[in-house]
Every structure is written in C-alpha cells, then in structure tokens.
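Ops channel
N.P.: pipeline sanity check, posting one input/output pair.
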C-alpha cells in the first residue's frame, strides 16, 4: 500500500522522541513535566461522572441533528451568550477545527496560525490538504506578548482562515480587547476568517481574580461590523473532562454571510453526526459545575506558577503567564550548542517540551505543565532545578 502524502508527512520521529524511546527500551524511568491530561492529576470531577450517568438514562432515543440537541445549545447560549442557533456541538475542538477548515478553504489553501503556538492546527490543516503559515507574536520581558500587526496582516492576506488562540498555548497571553479589535479589522480587510480558540479562557491566572461565565465581556466578535468568526471551546479544558468528548463552535458575523456559513456547517456536521447523545444531554449539568471546577484548578495553577518561579530562580526565569495550563521557562545559562530539553532528558531523565516544538524564537526555552498536584509538582521542579544547575555547569 502506498500511503498518501498527507498521512506520510506526519510520521517522522524527532530526536527527543527517539531518545525517549531508547531510554524506555533501556528500562530508564523518565519523569514527565509536560503532562496536561487533567485526568492524571486528580482532576476528574465526580459531578461530571454523575451528570453523564443521569444523562445516560435519558439517552435511549436518537434524534440526529447537525448542531446537536437543542437543550445542550440552550445551555451554551445561557452561559456564554448569543442564541442556540449560533452553536454547533462537536466531539472535540480538534474536530471542530477540521470542520471549519473544510468550510473555509479548498485543497492547497493556507491557514494562518500564531507563532509560537501549540502544534495542533498544522496536522489538522495537512490532513485537510492545506498548509499553515505563522504570524509572529513577540515576547517583551516584563510586559508580555505582543501581536506583530504587520506580520498578522501579511499572513491574513494569504490565508483563508486565521487562528487566534485566546489565551495562547504556550504563551499564556490573552487577546486584549484593543488588539482583538485590530486583528478583527485586519481579518475583515484581508477576507480571512478568524477561528478563535478559547479552550483555556477560563483559566486566568493574573490579578488573583476569578473568571465568571463569559460571553458578554467579549463583545468584539459580536459587535456590529465584526467579521464572520467562529469561536471554539470544549469540556476537555473547561470541565477537565477530555474523555467526555464534547466541544462547540459559536458562529457570529454579518447576517447574510453567517446564514451561508451556517448552512454549509450544517451539511458538514450532518455528514459525521459525531456527538454522543449522552454527552450532549449532560452538558447543561456539567456547565453548572464548570465554575467550581475552574476555581479549584485556578488556585492550583497559581500556586504551582509561584512555586515554579521560586524553585528555579536564579537558574531560570519564568515568563509572564496570564492564563492557561503551562509556563515557558528560560534557563539562564545554556552551554553553547546544548539543547536543554534533550540534555535534561538524556542526563536528568526529565521530559520537558522544547521551545522549538512551539516555534518559540528562543530555542533554549522549555515548556512545563502547571497541572500536577502540588506535591508531585514540587518534586518535579526540584529535579528540574537540579538538572538546570548541572546543565549550566556542564
Ligand atoms: C490551544 C488548544 N486548542 C485545542 C486543544 C484540543 O482540545 P480538544 O481536547 O477539545 O480537542 C488543545 C489541546 O491541548 C489546545 O492546547
């Protein structure tokens, strides 16, 4: 059998994966500081399981509908704003991306993605027969991440769709309202459809404030004159429930364009009908738990972020994190030619994500998860500190 080019391209193992495989074959235990699966960190919530069990008892019928059951979409509109007609349920945000890429671009087309950014859209685009181009985000020490609007406009000009991640992964930077207005205007000018990924939106870590239900505070995508846009969110992050497999798309924009997009999106969703009735019927109950789940996890993330900065100083600095589940760490001393992530894996048996995985301009940067329970987290970052000290002295 001849594999398709789209399938073949994704099969290369990078040097880190090869090293990890070799260590595993040698029986060496590696400590992962990268894990962002909430179900492995004591974050599976019993109320989510109870909501699923209750919904399962009501799932004995099947009413195929491309947008998903109305009661689930009513719950989304009640929490996030808009009307139920603006929402489509999907099994995951990744699936929602795939549908939207099929909606907005023909094979050979281009999608703009943030650089640095989580390497999720590239394989999705490739499987859709598309390619990605990056638009730059710059880190300004002591301030945070800034959008390079000229670079953004140039990318949007070439791209059928432009992905915005709010807050970014791994940058942890929110799209400030003023910037959102500017990028919305550029997307409109260049006829590039914004796809706004908000899976980490509820995990705001700065200023100690809580984050309530949102929608009303994000008027830029609903404002008159705003471009056609698609917002994405889902239970994998909002309720720490990636196994439930439920996410959603929210459509907004000028009436005529939105109606045409809605019709096409209905046709795409109707082709798959991937959403489980049980998960959809549990959504209203799960959303009732989301504030509590989010509040508890924000406390842990803030605590771990503080512990990380303290444990690593002065061997490394931690970049400003406004929100999300990961932090970017800059080791202060890296011997010429060393790749910190590879060095830590080989010599300290610690797995961290290298900056290059996310197209971070600074190749020495590493990325760690803030999700583990404090005791496990503290042990991991103590080992990281020791590893960085050895790396600096090597
Ligand atoms: C920014 C971002 N969007 C989407 C996803 C995928 O979410 P889902 O589990 O809904 O496919 C991830 C996964 O980590 C992510 O980091």
């Amino acid at each position: 059998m001849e594999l398709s080019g789209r399938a073949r391209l994704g099969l290369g193992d990078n040097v880190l994966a090869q090293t990890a495989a070799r260590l595993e074959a040698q029986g060496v235990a590696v400590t992962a500081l990268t894990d962002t699966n909430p179900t492995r960190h004591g974050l599976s919530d019993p109320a989510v399981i109870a909501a699923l069990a209750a919904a399962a008892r009501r799932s004995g019928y099947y009413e195929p509908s491309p947008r998903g059951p109305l009661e689930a979409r009513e719950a989304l509109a009640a929490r996030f704003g808009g009307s139920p007609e603006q929402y489509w349920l999907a099994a995951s945000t990744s699936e929602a991306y795939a549908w939207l890429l099929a909606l907005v671009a023909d094979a050979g087309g281009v999608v703009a993605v943030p650089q640095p950014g989580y390497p999720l859209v590239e394989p999705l685009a490739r499987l859709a027969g598309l390619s990605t181009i990056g638009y730059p985000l710059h880190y300004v020490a002591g301030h945070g991440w800034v959008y390079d609007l000229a670079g953004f406009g140039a990318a949007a000009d070439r791209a059928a769709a432009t992905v915005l991640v709010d807050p970014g992964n791994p940058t942890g930077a929110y799209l400030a309202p003023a910037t959102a207005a500017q990028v919305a205007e550029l997307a409109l000018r260049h006829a590039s459809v914004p796809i706004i990924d908000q899976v980490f939106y509820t995990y705001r870590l700065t200023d100690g404030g809580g984050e309530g239900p949102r929608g009303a505070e994000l008027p830029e995508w609903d404002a008159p004159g705003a471009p056609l846009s698609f917002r994405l969110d889902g239970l994998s992050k909002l309720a720490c429930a990636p196994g439930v497999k439920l996410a959603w798309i929210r459509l907004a924009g000028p009436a005529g364009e939105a109606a045409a997009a809605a019709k096409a999106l209905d046709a795409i969703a109707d082709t798959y009908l991937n959403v489980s009735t049980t998960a959809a019927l549990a959504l209203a109950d799960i959303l009732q738990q989301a504030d509590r789940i989010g509040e508890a996890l924000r406390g842990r993330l803030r605590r771990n972020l503080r512990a990380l900065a303290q444990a690593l100083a002065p061997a490394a600095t931690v970049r400003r994190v406004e929100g999300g589940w990961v932090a970017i760490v800059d080791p202060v001393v890296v011997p010429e030619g060393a790749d910190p992530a590879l060095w830590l894996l080989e010599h300290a048996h610690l797995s961290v994500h290298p900056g290059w995985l996310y197209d971070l301009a600074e190749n020495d940067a590493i990325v760690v998860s803030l999700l583990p329970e404090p005791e496990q987290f503290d042990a991991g970052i103590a080992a990281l500190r020791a590893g960085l000290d050895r790396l600096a002295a090597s």
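N.P.: looks fine end to end. The first helix runs from residue 5 to 8.
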